[in-house]
Amino acid sequence: MVRLPATLMRGGTSKCWVFDADDLSMADDRLDEVLASAFGAADPRQIDGVGGATSTTSKAVIVGPSREPGTDVDYLFAQVGIGTFGVEWGSNCGNCATAVGLYALQTGLATPGDPVSTVRLRNRNTGVRLSATVPTPGGTVPELGSATVPGSSAEGVPVGLGFASPGGASTGALLPTGDSVERVDGALATLVDAGAPAALAEAASVGASGLETVEEFAALVPRLALLRRAAALRMGLVGPDDPVTFAVPKVGVVAPAGDYVTSLGVPVRADAYDLAVRMVSMHAPHPVIGLTSAVAVAAAAMTPGTLPAKLAENRPLASTIRLGTPAGIVEAEVTTDHAGAIDTVTLHRAARRLATAELLVPALLRESV
Amino acid sequence: MVRLPATLMRGGTSKCWVFDADDLSMADDRLDEVLASAFGAADPRQIDGVGGATSTTSKAVIVGPSREPGTDVDYLFAQVGIGTFGVEWGSNCGNCATAVGLYALQTGLATPGDPVSTVRLRNRNTGVRLSATVPTPGGTVPELGSATVPGSSAEGVPVGLGFASPGGASTGALLPTGDSVERVDGALATLVDAGAPAALAEAASVGASGLETVEEFAALVPRLALLRRAAALRMGLVGPDDPVTFAVPKVGVVAPAGDYVTSLGVPVRADAYDLAVRMVSMHAPHPVIGLTSAVAVAAAAMTPGTLPAKLAENRPLASTIRLGTPAGIVEAEVTTDHAGAIDTVTLHRAARRLATAELLVPALLRESV
Which of the residues A81, A311, B35, B325 could staple to B289 if both were Cys, CB 3.0 to 4.6 A apart? Predict the structure, then answer.
């Protein structure tokens, strides 16, 4: 009987099943089938597998040592289908990256230092390079910590997630079309490639305020799905004959800061942050913001002429941008090089190992009978 | 470091984390805290634990050998909170019982026979006795099978789940108030105790048809929560000073069979079944029907004078009742003794082992540091 080893990690507000690349090497040519089977992807509630049946809990990463000098760990991110027996490979996930950093230290894939360890990661989906910095006093890797992230009161191990030279990893340019603002599918948008490719529409141009609750924002998802498709074509991420994907590019709206109330009922004043953001995750509103989307918005905000830069031009610190998301404020630190290019975007996150497991995967069991 | 062994099982349309009683013996006096911590119950998305954040995926069972003659396995069912750091212990779960039967055979807690094995179970929450019958050709316990249940296309190992003498396990009587129909909180209802205590309202008396989709039925949940509280008091399950629970009794509506379309879009004709049923699960419509609720409805249907008996009086087979649920038809076989008392209610189900695991539970980790 084949049992597939896997570790369930929380990274920020996502849950990710982490697989060792060695354990999946026998299934290299059919990873989609094996992951979809393990997660129970065919069922919209993923009842026959280990998936969580939401976009933030239907995620897998395949992790192994990197062969690249200067990089410790390579990982491949999979957004596993929910009600669809398949997997999307087109995007990265920052929450899972924080989990991978901690996992690498906990499993010995990376060697802990003292008092902190920095794991250098490469995302194989997009080529993005990241670093995960974890406190490891005395070289000991913690299971618990007291760091939190917007969207959850749960505590975890603090992980500083740095995106190095994030511009253009997927398309070759921070602004893939060369324009800082353009009209896409009838909306004003900035198309940016940093962390992940993203299409950021001006909220007003799609009839939104950017201050919507998650429930209110759900009504805009179909409109933004059309914009995502148009942006995917414009950015050269897909061709006209390729099937529609729901993961690439990230899509959402940006707006000037305004007063709103978070999903947990906490009021947020306009002067507490710099830019309102509401993002889509697959087929639904994102309850917070994807980390790679946060990098894209932050990088755009540092790039003159883009919508995020214009709408957040009154922020007090040039190197920091505070994003107002449905769950609260996400802060990004951006460093630039001498030429003004984006050097690193860093987000303060939390992660935790939830369980180690062996999965009974029908697609693997059937052939071993 | 304390790691808590656990096995993730699918039972029908539920996912249940199964714990060996021995592994939790060190936490006997604080099971609520340990399970809530393992599941991440405090967060409404259970993001910091292994819970699935829905009523059908936030379930645990604690399993051990029974000391009772004639019983193989005892199990205790826990409905773990979602957005509430706590656990409800007041009810049984038939889906988890099917999982426990298979788990007992797979782990050696019960000895497999040839060609089938019957595991005799006792539910410690309610005192209900059940049997789980699994095909075990040559004494081999399968990991896969081709049985399905309404509400999911996923295949699993067939499990025949029998509820022995189900009447009165919680309250001492099949009809705890002595009445077969009564007015409760302004509705006409049958209060029955079989499998689990249940309050079954006539759909028309609460303004429903009993043919609602899950989405439509959601509007009736607040009304039925009030009825559940009134019924809990009337059945003696709680006292007036006890807190409101959302698990006990089961509550829902029954109605004459009518044409409807299932959640998966399949039309169901009125003549294909005997009684329409729409049940509540905690705070939301149940997508199918809980198995213990199915037993309660079936037992009531065999008991003259109750609402299910009156509304399903034209069923073709006296020993079988076909329940029309939002996901499709659930069929129950009922045997009675010479005196006409309910002997056994049997439901045909499916189960599968999804993963074996060790959980990193903050409540246990904190004290071991």
Answer: B325
Spatial separation of the C-alpha atoms in residues A81 and A40, rounded to whole Å: 9
Superfamily of domain B4-164+351-365: Diaminopimelate Epimerase; Chain A, domain 1 (3.10.310.10)
Q: What's the pLDDT band for A2 if we cut at 50, 70, 90?
A: confident
Instruction: For residue range A244-267, list pLDDT tens digits in order.
Output: 888 899 999 999 999 999 998 999
Q: Do B355 and A353 touch (CB under 8 A)?
A: no
Nearest CB to A48 within list B6, B352, B358? B352
Nearest alpha carbon to residue A283 among A14, A34, A44? A44
Residues B330-366: tens digit of each pLDDT: 999 999 998 888 999 999 999 999 999 999 999 999 9
Residue located via tokens 């919209």 = A44
- C-beta of residue B263 within 8 angstroms of C-beta of residue B287: yes
Residue entry with tokens 């991110």: A77
Whether residue A144 and residue B352 make contact (CB cut-off 8 A), yes or no, is: no
CA distance A262 to chain B (A): 14
Domain A4-165+351-365: CATH superfamily is Diaminopimelate Epimerase; Chain A, domain 1 (3.10.310.10)
**Residue A357 in contact with partner chain B when CB distance is under 8 A:** yes
Q: Please report which helix (H) or strand (E) contains residue B105, including its range.
A: helix B94-107
CB pair distance less than 8 Å for A10 and B43: no
